[in-house]
Amino acid sequence: MNQKKDVQQGTLALMVLKTLDMLGPLHGYGVARRIEQISGELLSVNQGTLYPVLLRLEQEGAIASEWGPSENNRRARFYRLTRTGHKLLEAEKRDWEQRAAIIARFFEVRAEDLA
């Protein structure tokens, strides 16, 4: 069986932005569960890691929050993507794709390609 992996440092903010972009406003627990679900249950999102990321994204203006009732009628803070967040998501997506393409080159190159 596969053991759940922690989210790699530096990727959680991108996952949060994409999750909110795709699914709309969610509370923190909902964000964590959706990230785990989207990963096929291969990732584990630690609440102690998630909430500082949510706070930082809100301070940067990428997300906004407001209080509302959760599914079980408890008071929860719901986060949504802002216009700034949409722009940041697009920039981060381009950056991630570029990094992935660079790493992919290292797996494709052969010694004779460098001669």
Structural class: alpha+beta
Query: How many domains make up the coordinates?
Result: 1
Which CATH top level class fits?
Answer: Mainly Alpha
Helix content: 40-55%
Percentage of β-strand residues: 15-25%
CATH topology: Arc Repressor Mutant, subunit A
End-to-end span in angstroms?
43 Å
Number of strands: 5
Kindly describe this structure:
This protein has 115 residues and is of the alpha+beta class. The protein has a single domain (5-109), classed as Arc Repressor Mutant, subunit A (Orthogonal Bundle). Helices cover 54% and strands 17% of the residues. The protein contains four helices and five strands. It has helices at residues 12-23, 28-38, 47-59, 83-108; strands at residues 5-6, 26-27, 43-44, 63-69, 75-81. Helix 1 (12-23) packs across helix 2 (28-38). It is elongated, with a radius of gyration of 17 Å.
